[in-house]
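REQUEST FORM: STRUCTURE PREDICTION
Request ID: SP-0412
Submitted by: Lab K.M.
Chain count: 1
Length (residues): 433
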Amino acid sequence: PPTLAITPASPMSVSSSSVLSSSQASGLAGSSSAAGGPSARSQMAVYSLQTWSSLLLHETEDQYRNYRYMENILVNPPSLASQTMFQLAPSVQKFLVENYYLTDDLFLREVLGKKLTNGLRRDMQDIAEKTRLRLSCCYRLFDNLKRVHKAVLQDTKVPAVDVIQAHFMLSKELAGKYARAVFMSIHRFDGGKKRIQFLSYADFDRFAGILMQYWAATPIPVAAHPPPASTKDTALCVELDARFKDDIRDLKAHLLSTREVIERYRRFVKARFQTPPLGASSSSSSLTPSSITTPPLSTTPLTASVSTTPLSTSTSTLSASSASVIPSMPKHRLKELENKFKSILKGLLSIGANMSDPKEFKNIFDDLVELVVEPCRRIGMTGPELDQFFIYLLEGFDPHILDLLGLKHRQRFAQSWRRYLEAIRLVLIHMYS
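STATUS: Completed
RESULT:
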């Protein structure tokens, strides 16, 4: 006999569906064949409709009841394997957990930079109205994020993705997105400033991945191209490298200690822009920000989501690769860049030094727009020219060029400066585009 599967519109559907029994189906078929007149057929239609409605109502009520029981288990996904209330195949367990912990970018944009406290939970009504999400959905999203946040904080030196996957059985892609959200939550990145309202959560998610790749306690070696497979998730801790932060803070003092150091740096960058490029066209009109390689958006796991393009440690390699596609900067723009070089460099150094101060570091993206992006836009720099500017800053940081031979640990400082500028470069190129 034919069967009828019912899929109710419930918050979470367990893999069970009500069907008409064989006796019910046979009875309905027999009644239909015995009916001879229009009145009998009408009565049969009414009876069928009532049966359908009753089955649908009971199925929906069952699913809501199942969901209430199931939710107590989903808050601790590993318990799914040992619970006896529901008989679920491993694939169904994975489906339930993955969908229960799905995130929403609009929601995450609203809570960006805010402490995950009970006070914020009481504001879910306002967030639900802004994002047009159901209030129950906002509560679920908030509780899930807070639960993951708490699990990661238990050991910030362990790769966050590994912690999340172990505690919540999530896919690597979703665990990576949570890792970046927790990273931004820990450092309280402020996304509410007027200057950065144009940035979506996908942008912040991308930036967080870049910073974790380059500035985390165990970073991917920036000299590797491409990053070796052995590094895998090692860079995905949510704490910044303490020595790296100290190095950038000390570099600010060294580079700004005398006017001559900045002047040497400025002259080097100017000379590099004035060097006739090999095989370059006379116009940069054909170049657009999209031609600059930047990491893809966060539609892939964190380890693959930031396709870093580290620059070679060789100055000649940098020059050859860039000169073949980037023409010289026009003289009037180069003159303006020369005049603003000191203020831009000081801005970059100040932003780097702020990593040691959580109250200042949370404004990193607003500071980047104010101290770097806006001055460069006023100059009229294109995306490729901005990229070249950072390449030349990397090339120019040489103890011989800047007369820093007396600097202790200069090799370590050079590596830290490279790590810092590589991440800033990738963030700014995306902002600029």
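NOTES: The radius of gyration is 29 Å.
Reviewed by: T.R.
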